[in-house]
Amino acid sequence: MNGKHKYTIEVLYHFSCGACDNWWSYAVTPISQPFTFTLNDEKVYCPHCGHCQTTEIKKGFWLEKMQKSAEKT
Length: 73
Fold this sequence. Notes:
Mean pLDDT: 81
Helix content: 10-25%
Shape: extended
Low-confidence stretches: none
Number of domains: 1
């Protein structure tokens, strides 16, 4: 052992159902850089009620703003 701490990277997507309003998360391990993963045209099933629908990012949540903020730190 070299005594160093080891880590992995995981991206979490948090969903809320458009029918039952319950929420769940989906984890993705990026396998390429830069990491791209979009769900805008894919249908996703709610694990609670089974409602199937396409997705959209929540209003007021902008990845660009978060990315710029993270780059400053």
